[in-house]
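One record is kept unedited as follows:
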Amino acid sequence: MADFTLSRRLTAEALGTAMLVGTVVGSGIMADRLSDDVAVSLLGNTIPTGAILVVLITILGPISGAHFNPAVTFVFWLRKELTLGIGLAYILVQVLGGICGSLIAHIMFELPVWQASTTVRTGGAQWTAEVVATFGLLASILAGIKFREAAVPWLVGLYITAAYWFTASTSFANPAVAISRAFTDTFAGIRPIDLPGFIVAEFAGAALALLVFSWLLKSNERS
């Protein structure tokens, strides 16, 4: 990343998050149109999301680190790999890029551009699921960097593919994606009023993963 200017890094983060959210929202719309079976629609939403993560992390990771996620940026700031200013700039462009992804998906499917979701996603089970989802995502990233960095795109893509199905929340695991999904009243949406619980849970899961894996990955220390 040292070879790329901050403007290029921020552009990569904005573009990557926009493409990620565009895939989440767009594939959700397509899947919902093609099937009345919610399970089939969820599968049609899951596979493109996992696939695009592999692509985006592979092509943009060398530029910005391919966070596309404020919870990931938060962890790398805690690890002192980003300054506070750069971390906040990353988060800002991630959120803005993600919102643009939702709006572009609406344009592609000839839907009203500006929407607010009415999909209810709240409660202890959903919040617990987001802690678990984000913990697992950061675990995949941190352990992947430690043991097999080249595999991180696949680890993240496969983890999110799995987490769509084993978490009650369908694994948002990303505050920027959560905020962006509040701007779409489609299959992937979440009510704006439900965002605070999701965002707190996601940052909590990320911090917990850092705490656990900072200890777990120190193989040269006596247990």
